[in-house]
Design a protein that fits this description.
There is one protein chain. The chain has eleven helices and 13 strands. With 354 residues, the chain is an alpha/beta fold. The strands form two sheets. It has a nine-stranded mixed sheet with strand order 1-12-13-11-10-4-9-8-7, sandwiched between helices. Strands 3-2-5-6 form a four-stranded antiparallel sheet, with helices on one face. It folds into two domains: 263 residues, Rossmann fold (3-Layer(aba) Sandwich); 74 residues, no CATH class.
Length: 354
């Protein structure tokens, strides 16, 4: 365990974001609730994070931690009811204006106008996102013409340019084919071209390479990273794979049970993890859990599951699975402590271990 430094509670979420620089998206104290006939269950519990132009931010954690539902809330794609945004702000910049997406009606025209033009999303499985009845090129052309005033010929040329940009060979041929005629990697490249066709300021990617083989996955991740930097796009990447995070991220936010438990630069998270959950995730990845002296893999998976919760609702949610838990963890939820200017952790160890 690395040496701990004195830390103070962080109140970064209390400050209003400054959009005078490259800030593209600012999520402040976001709350998402699942409402059923019997109860209202909070799924995301007051999370905050920022993304700047040209920057890739990763939300990482196990399934059920709230990552995907956060991205769907930003895009206004929550299944409502029963899911809804019940608190906080989702501030999106477009040009000189800033829009609070949380204040918009998700199914309204204002939100629809922003989707595709100001922000876009790459989903995990392109076959569920691309229309199987329409040719690949036509789907991109329709997206372009919906948001940009171009003739059909000009939109077609722009579409071919996008297909070339994402590395699709013979784009004139691929554009006239249907999604089922392409490989999984090619379909995902079409999805990336579709998402970036109108040059959005914000790109969201929810596990976009999970269904692909390792070689294709590496190629797709490289394309996303390269295009984000080249087009100065703010990118939010949702994943459970810390290997992907190491390859892609500038900043990382580790989520557990609806809260961000640790955040920092990719180097801080990988070289100096300060939350037991982050340490557990790192120890569970074969390529990251190698003993330096023996060069042997030393996997140490986290016991239990995300559903294991403490008996006391005021306790730290991770306490039942934590091998480093202190007595106070069983009855006190830790605040967010500032480790460094860019590094924060929600753990009592930051206050009690020096």
């Amino acid at each position: 365990m690395s040496t701990m430094t004195t830390s103070q509670p962080s109140h970064a979420a209390d400050r209003m974001p400054d959009f005078s620089n490259d800030l593209q998206l600012s999520v402040r104290d976001l709350e998402i609730t699942l409402t059923t006939r019997d109860e209202a269950k909070p799924l995301v519990k007051g999370i905050s994070f920022d993304i700047r132009r040209g920057e890739t931010v990763c939300l990482v954690g196990e399934s059920g931690c709230g990552k995907s539902v956060t991205s769907l809330a930003i895009m206004g794609l929550l299944q409502s009811p029963p899911l809804s945004v019940t608190g906080g702000q989702i501030l999106l910049r477009e040009g000189d204006s800033v829009t609070d997406l949380a204040a918009l009606t998700p199914r309204g025209s204002a939100y629809r106008d922003l989707r595709g033009r100001a922000m876009s999303m790459i989903f995990q499985e392109p076959m569920t996102s691309l229309n199987p009845a329409h040719r690949n090129g036509r789907q991109i052309v329709e997206m372009i013409r919906q948001h940009i005033s171009l003739s059909r010929a000009a939109a077609w040329d722009r579409m071919l340019e996008m297909l070339r940009l994402v590395g699709i060979p013979s784009p004139e041929i691929r554009a006239k084919q249907y999604p089922h005629q392409l490989s999984g990697g090619m379909r995902q490249r079409v999805m990336i071209a579709l998402a970036l066709a109108c040059d959005p300021g914000l790109l969201l990617a929810d596990e976009p390479t999970t269904a692909l083989d390792v070689t294709t996955q590496a190629q797709i991740l490289n394309e996303i990273r390269k295009l984000s930097v080249k087009r100065h796009t703010a990118t939010l990447f949702i994943t459970h794979d810390l290997g992907v995070v190491a390859q892609l991220a500038d900043h990382v936010h580790v989520m557990y049970h609806g809260k961000i438990v640790e955040s920092g630069t990719v180097r801080e998270i990988f070289k100096n993890p300060r939350h037991p959950y982050t340490r557990g995730l790192l120890a569970s990845v074969p390529s990251l859990a190698r003993d330096q002296e023996t060069d042997m893999e030393t996997l140490d998976p986290i016991p239990g599951s995300v559903r294991d919760l403490p008996e006391d609702p005021s306790a730290c949610p991770f306490q039942p699975r934590c091998r480093m838990a202190l007595k106070r963890c069983a009855h006190e939820t830790p605040p967010e402590f500032q480790v460094s200017e860019t590094h924060k952790a929600r753990c009592w160890l930051e206050a009690e271990i020096r």
